[in-house]
Amino acid sequence: MILVLSCIPGRTNLCSNHSVTTPIDLPPDIRSSLDSLDLEGYISFNDVHNASKDFGNRYQLPPLAILHPRSVSDISTMVRHIVHLGSTSNLTVAARGHGHSLQGQSLAHQGVVINMESLRSPDIKIHKGKQPYADVSGGESWINILRETLKYGLSPKSWTDYLHLTVGGTLSNAGISGQAFKYGPQINNVYQLEIITGKGEVMTCSEKQNSELFYSVLGGLGQFGIITRARIALGPAPHMEVEKLLSELSYIPSTLFSSEVPYIEFLDRVHIAEIKLRAKGLWEVPHPWLNLLIPKSSIFEFATEVFNNILTSNNNGPILIYPVNQSKWNKHTSLITPAEDIFYLVAFLPSAVPNPNSRTSNLEYLLRQNQRVLNFCSAANINVKQYLPHYETQREWRSHFGNRWETFAKRKHTYDPLAILAPGHRIFQKATQLSPIQLL
Predict the structure, then answer these.
(1) Taking Cα atoms as reference points, which of 321, 358, 312 lies closest to residue 343?
(2) Residues 6+ apart with CB under 8 A from 115
(3) Are 438 and 3 in contact (CB under 8 A)?
(4) 96 near 114, Cβ under 8 Å?
(5) Residue 256: which domain range?
(6) 142 and 222 inside one domain
(7) 410 within domain boundaries
(8) Inter-residue contact 216 to 334 (CB < 8 Å)
């Protein structure tokens, strides 16, 4: 049986919120079939509001059901069941951790959202030795891993800037922070994964075992499988004085601002800011973030135009700039980066706070500003790549993957032939009829 994989064509209005709030009745036979599944956890059909939106807070796309798994078997059972239904249903599956996607990537409109945080194991297993590691659930949060590993004087080598995210979520993208220049992203610091493919198969993979699946899933945007367990590389928790660190740097002394805080407080600094913003009602607003990977050869041209002529407002929010070394990034993963030895992550992280005194909404202004940045990169022929990518057309996805598109599409057919996984990225559309395979 061969099925069609197709990209989602068309373009959506850049400045609109995407909302579908009209309840959709679940076909009785589909609901009955889901109810009949033998699960350790449970399925919810009613309380789906929180799974209808993500951190970006621009999309409102309710699923038909939420699976709260208590075991890996629960997830495999659900995926196998949807595969068995085949083209008779439109059900798709989105594995959702903390829901920190920006443009609906963790949503499954009219599908099944899997609440991965329900899969957390009662314990995080720490293994010491010459190559220490932690065995953790794909639904475990990085902050819990940090707290547990510090008890042994260890910690993961690479982080994200926000630790209240799940392991499966960040490994499906990359996991980038200030440590990436030295250790590479989080996907470079994984020894082994347990994956549920789009066929419902439970597979263990590593560099030496099922290596194609291993590299496909890392940075694979959830397209090839759901990460249910991961073996994370650990190293000694750093205990360095500020003076020693500064002695290794070249900088202008008058520009120095330093503050000494405990290691865990430093790594969890974004959560501290989150608490303050939540108290003011400023957290659950639209977040039109834009994350770009800029090659070193173009960074001066990019910075000159963007920071001098495009970002002219004082309401842009934090801007992060991390230089990274290509040599620290494994080229076998699905992550797409500029083809230069050194490139920069430039992250624009604004919040669209309502402004009652303006005729133009803050969200619309920020989205247009993002588009101006992208338009400049295109006009200047800067080989920029989006991190946490989002595109609306087949042409844009092909351009993003470049000469790796065919490999990406073939792997999709291998591990998720019905294209039921991670529909929120809108790369592939679920096959609904029999037809010769079409690689896009």
Answers:
(1) 321
(2) 51, 66, 67, 68, 69, 96
(3) no
(4) yes
(5) 121-282
(6) yes
(7) yes
(8) yes
229 falls within a domain: yes
- The list of the chain residues with pLDDT below 70 reads 1-28, 240-242, 315, 358-360, 432-440
- In the chain, DSSP finds a helix count (H) and a strand count (E) of 13, 16
Q: What is the CA radius of gyration of the chain?
A: 22
Contact 177, 157 (CB under 8 A): no
State the pLDDT at residue 335.
97
Same domain flag for 125 and 114 = no
Cα–Cα dist 187/174, whole Å? 5
CA distance 102 to 270: 17
- Alpha-carbon gap, residue 400 to 404, rounded angstroms: 9
User: What pLDDT digit, counting tens, does each position of 34-81 carry?
Assistant: 999 999 999 999 989 999 999 999 999 999 999 999 999 999 999 999
* Count: domains in the chain: 3
CATH number at residue 31: 3.30.43.10
pTM recorded for the entire structure: 0.90
Which of 125, 179, 101 has its CA nearest to residue 423? 101
8 A C-beta contact, residue 129 and residue 85: no
pLDDT digits (tens, 9 = 90+) for 185-233: 999 999 999 999 999 999 999 999 999 999 999 999 999 999 999 999 9
Q: Which long-range contacts (CB under 8 A, 24 or more apart) does 267-272 make?
A: 267/146, 267/159, 267/163, 268/143, 268/146, 268/163, 269/161, 270/161, 270/162, 270/163, 271/143, 271/162, 271/163, 271/164
pLDDT at 228: 98
Packing angle between helix 405-415 and helix 394-401, nearest 10 degrees? 110
User: CA 96: distance to chain centroid?
Assistant: 10
- Angle between helix 296-305 and 362-379 (nearest 10): 130
CB 114 within 8 A of CB 92: no
Q: How far apart are CA 116 and CA 97, in angstroms?
A: 5
> 90 and 206 share a domain?
no
Helix H, strand E, coil C: the string for 248-285 is CCCCCHHHCCCCCCCHHHHHCHHHHHHHHHHHCCCCCC
Q: Which two tokens stand for residue 417?
A: 């032939």
Residue 235: partners with Cβ closer than 8 Å, 6 or more residues away: 132, 154, 155, 156, 157
